[in-house]
């Protein structure tokens, strides 16, 4: 890492490192975690209520929401909550998710990623390219979903669009929903597969070893910032 | 004159069809009925319509709907569109015939066409909210309706309307309750000119032939029957004096079909979508079985401690 570069590489507010045995690294603040779990709850509820109207074999899921009428009425409102909740996550996380040159290398070595050979991968900042795909994928899909969702929210917006526009919107909405559920599966699976990750979103902390193994550039910056904070102002 | 349907007997009569006669049920697969009933149809002869709106009045009366009074918009349509309380509507068009240079006042009674291949039913996600009887009647079962409005997207004729009161979809039932006891629809009963007649689909086609011959003899060489094949035919048909141009009758679609967008949404998307989600989940399980968990090693922790210590010493 270049010590002359005064701009933080991709350290987010609240990130910090505590030397010890083991080293503890703060990854997500309480605010970020609450924000994340509100979004997560909304996304799961939206998937369940949406899927119940997507395929007849899943219609029984409407029982979770108090029947078909309730499911139809509540699904768009959960979507509104999700939209604003995710907007909070977007503001928190977008900067650290900007594409960097090492992300291209990471992608080229996707076989090593899947095989768990992280020694063959470049040192990474707070997020790897896979996490960045999830972030930008979610961001784009949520915009598509809220926009197409409003077009088919007949209770309030029926008069604004033609039937043909509503047909297109519902097709776009269902395709986007399928894709976002797949993105969600990748997100959840990655968190389970890479052990030690879930604690980042529950307790807010990871171990130094986890940060060293998966996000070494980020860890180096956190350590450097802790020791070199005086130096940067002087230099 | 088409022989009128006699009045019903005073004694109670058992319904002629019920849920055992369903050929289609939304979001469900059902066994085919033991035998198909004779298909029924309503024939609307636009050339005989005088625009009196007795059919609308009879519809409101029989279905006991309370269509609110609207503003006069300077046109003859009243109300201005189909509503959850107005299942049928006379649509008026002033059309200048380019051949004769005369003004023709076209009046078409709009409402559900009771398609043989109903787009509303195909789009409906709620099991049993839309049903089709073997005699061709497509009916909404309101206790199963969830008010999502998918039927509106499925319909090639823009017929269903969602009530703002109970959030359920409404449309013409072809008076299934009247037909079940051997009566014709209320609109047919009320029509003073026999512009609306009701019977079996074969009878209606035969009557239409007779009417079309009559119209042709009067100079309407393009007179014909509107029974659009794109939706498998309909159980409400029109005799049009300009059957080559259905669009002039307040936008009656020339070749109505279920929109390919709706077919894609309710066909491919549904199956590929579930398949894709399934594949993603299975891929996760398989990957974990092959690659195993990605664990932090003691060396990783040691390296982190070394790095942190170096940082502190600086």
What labels would you give this structure?
A: 235 residues; mainly alpha; Fumarate Reductase Cytochrome B subunit; disordered C terminus; B: 314 residues; alpha+beta; Alpha-Beta Plaits
Short description:
The complex is a heterodimer of chains A (235) and B (314). Chain A has helices at 30-54, 68-93, 101-108, 110-115, 129-151, 154-157, 163-193, 198-202, 208-214, 216-234; strands spanning 16-18, 24-26, 205-207.
Q: What does it look like?
A:
The complex is a heterodimer of chains A (235) and B (314). Chain A is mainly alpha-helical and 235 residues long. Chain A has one domain: Fumarate Reductase Cytochrome B subunit (Up-down Bundle), CATH 1.20.950.20. Chain A has helices at residues 30-54, 68-93, 101-108, 110-115, 129-151, 154-157, 163-193, 198-202, 208-214, 216-234, and strands at residues 16-18, 24-26, 205-207. The longest helix of chain A has 31 residues, at 163-193. In chain A, 37% of the residues are buried. Chain B is α+β, with helices and mostly antiparallel strands and 314 residues long. Helix content of chain B is 30%, strand content 17%. In chain B, the strands form 4 sheets. Chain B has a 4-stranded mixed β-sheet. The longest helix of chain B is centred in the C-terminal third of the chain and has 24 residues, at 268-291. The model of chain B has no long low-confidence stretch (mean pLDDT 96).
